[in-house]
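Q: what does this look like with NAP bound?
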Amino acid sequence: MFAGKTVVITGASSGLGAALADGVAKAGGCLALLARNAERLGAVAESCRAAGARVVEVQGDVVDSGACEDLISSALAEFSSIDYLVLNAGVSMWTSFEEIENLSLFSKIMDTNYQGSVNCVYHGLAALKESGGLLVAISSIQGLTGVPSHTGYCASKHALQGFCDSLRIELEGTGVDVLTVLPSWVSGTGLRGRALGAEGEPIGGEAKGHSSSAVPLDRLVAKVLRAMRKRRRRLYVPGYMRIIPLLKALCPCLLDWIIRKKVSR
Ligand SMILES: NC(=O)c1ccc[n+]([C@@H]2O[C@H](COP(=O)([O-])OP(=O)(O)OC[C@H]3O[C@@H](n4cnc5c(N)ncnc54)[C@H](OP(=O)(O)O)[C@@H]3O)[C@@H](O)[C@H]2O)c1
């Protein structure tokens, strides 16, 4: 299904972005990849080429609109069209609001997770309309509900979710569909190690570990690629997470209690 298709992925130097690139490469797709760390991005691109894919790599920051424009124009110059635009670049946090000493944490997270996605859509939408393509936003279940120690991250994913839900309605009839991916905790990525702490810097080695209920990365990748092929509108991983909006509407205090318990564990 990805044979001959062009897939653009932001945040492709590690975790989910790198694993999606690998999956697309093995399924015969062409790739345009962006991240800030050139060395890690280069290694991902090389491994995709070794799997037989044509790959364009762009070193850049999604916060920089010019870098997003460069990503889209490089993909079009090499492959002539864009079939999938995957908004995956993201950064998280792990600190309660009252402990925060540096407010820049909020702008760093919002600029990357929300504005960075808007920047890519701004430059990529015309190409998606041309191909009747799919916009894929890697949101989070935290885009639908609050989680302690994640105020800024939840806010950024709520913003992304609202942006995508509004855009989907605007794009009705244009041939462009919008898929939002809502994973719970995922193990096997760098997100926790790079999560920002109270001083606005990555916590690194002190980052919290994962519980056994975290979704393994390979399982998430298989589900995302399948949802892309089927042009789904929303993907919950694990699937039982689709109960969250229902609980939030009907029993919000119960939902808060469950989340508080989960996070404190
Ligand atoms: N892991 C989870 O539990 C989980 C759960 C739900 C949703 N998600 C979402 O999944 C997505 C991928 O995260 P992950 O878990 O795979 O984490 P990850 O391994 O840390 O990957 C994040 C990627 O984003 C890139 N990135 C970060 N800031 C960027 C920027 N300003 N410009 C360009 N690229 C940037 C990083 O590369 P560079 O540092 O090289 O730029 C890296 O390639 C994120 O949107 C995250 O919110 C993750």
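The chain is about 45% helix and 15% strand. Residues 90 and 184 are 15 Å apart (CA to CA).
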